[in-house]
Amino acid sequence: MFGGGWIEERKKKTMARTDTSSENGTAATLLVVDDCADNRFAICELVDAYLPECRVLTASSAQDGLEMATEHPFDGMLINAQMSGMDGIEMCRRLKGDERTAHAPIILLTAHRTTSMLRAEGLDAGAEDFIAQPVDNVELAARIRVILRNKQTADGLRRLVAERKRMEEMLLQSSRLIVLGQMAAGMAHELNQPLTGISVIAQGYRMLIERGVQITPEGLLEDSELILEQVERMRRLIEHLRIFSRDRSAEPKEETFLGDVINSTLQITDAQLKSHGIELHLELAEDLPPVLGDSYRLEQVLLNLINNARDILGKKQEQAKGEDLPDWVKRLHIGARCEGGQVIVEVEDTGSGISAENQQKLFQPFPTMEGPDRGMELGLAICHAIVQDHQGMLECQSEEGRGTLFRIALPQCNSS
Length: 416
Description:
The chain is of the alpha/beta class. The chain folds into two domains: 4-135, Response regulator (Rossmann fold); 173-411, Histidine kinase-like ATPase, C-terminal domain (Heat Shock Protein 90, 2-Layer Sandwich), CATH 3.30.565.10. It has helices at residues 11-21, 37-50, 62-71, 88-96, 116-124, 137-210, 217-244, 258-275, 295-319, 356-359, 377-389, and strands spanning 29-33, 55-59, 76-80, 106-110, 129-132, 254-256, 279-284, 291-293, 331-339, 342-349, 393-399, 403-411. It starts with 10 loop residues before the first helix and ends in a 5-residue tail after the last strand.
């Protein structure tokens, strides 16, 4: 096929080189598929002469080549386009359709004159190159080097993408753990209330028994129902926390009412806001339409925004010590309304605001902000990613010294 004038002269030497080079696990590996032994030998000779760093494996049919390709990773394949039985173009099509072999670059070869239609068919099947006789050995070697370099570049990009995805997953998990830690105080308060109620009932019965007071079945039944109500309340809280802590990024989305998400979030954060002396204004429009989403992931967004606001208000109060701020109030406003086919949720605080420079960095997942705003980016980057995954937008409006407003806009569900 290629370089045939010196095939017989070096046949024995080449076959020996191919067998030993296949043991080298660090070399780039090529698969040569051709039903003609002389063609396979010629390509092995070419690789030996011009690409000695490569190892070569061969297959005498498309079927054998497919089996080898799925069992071993190859950096490139050279396939005869016009083999008997299954031809190289069909083999190429099958390789590109299998995720295990789709990334291996392919050069289709033919020892016959070809047509533009055949070339187009081979390239449409996914081949990176199509080479027909006559071709110079130096040129063929150069083209092989090109596909190997492209493969290395593509593999490097895939590794970078995989690493970025892994980092994003780690950031998401880190953010979720941070929010779970922030939820602990609110959850402790919510669990303490029913536990206190159960403890009061139990102490009351203990006192009655110690005094020899007769306990009526009616009173016992009534108090047992109260205890069961409190136990159910705690069970729901614990189940909520368990589901929240799970990675739900792959969970299917369903109709979700943001008013319910806001109320669920405030059930966890209300005690903390009160203990920090923060005045809460809640303004939820009636009959808000649902959105398509995951209520727990959206709750994570709101928890992060509320906790950020709480911290910023606390920082402003600390910085304002000794300053005269007679009209300033630690206030958090949460509102929800429907506007232009979207459900809008706003979280606004009266804190110290965010500088214009830092607003440009708000949703970056690494700490690049300066000053009192530093440390917000990780949580906000995750919030931004979650809202985007819900086909929505998260934006910020802020002015230094006057507070910050975060606005979430999510498309409402179609009534159909």
